[in-house]
Amino acid sequence: MTAPIADALPFWQTKTLEQMSRAEWESLCDRCGRCCLHKLRDEESGALAYTNVACRLLDLHGCGCADYAGRRQQVPDCVQLTPAALRRIDWLPPSCAYRRVAEGRGLAAWHPLLSGDPDSVHKAGVSVRGRVVSERTAGAWEDHVVTWPHRSPRPRRGADKP
Length: 162
Prior knowledge:
Layout: H1 11-14, H2 22-28, E1 37-41, E2 48-54, H3 71-74, H4 83-88, H5 97-102, H6 112-115, H7 120-123, E3 133-134, E4 145-146
Parallel strand pairs: 2-3
Antiparallel strand pairs: 1-2, 2-4
């Protein structure tokens, strides 16, 4: 007898990142916006500094790209995240679903695929909503260095349950 469909494991627990369909891959993004923040890397030491300056295409409220399909034409250095790129990138936040799945940690309880709520990432205080400025108005990025984008977020009370 086969297990009921309701008991089937979700795709992120049964497939590698390389095996995922494009739709599955895209659904892993929780729309936190942290990867869309500008980073500064010291040319001599390689040290990385995070800023609260968002890409000009980031919707500061919804935390998604305003032109996802055309982003590479408008922002040529926009990183296209792929399984191969994921292995090379050292700046994804620890909360990133792509990073979490690649490291075998699964999705956080507030992830929309688990909660069923696309706003759960914002309710949990994980997204950049209300914490960033657009590159269009930021001025010198060096004046906007922060540490929170690369730290594991602490879930807000009651937001850690799907």
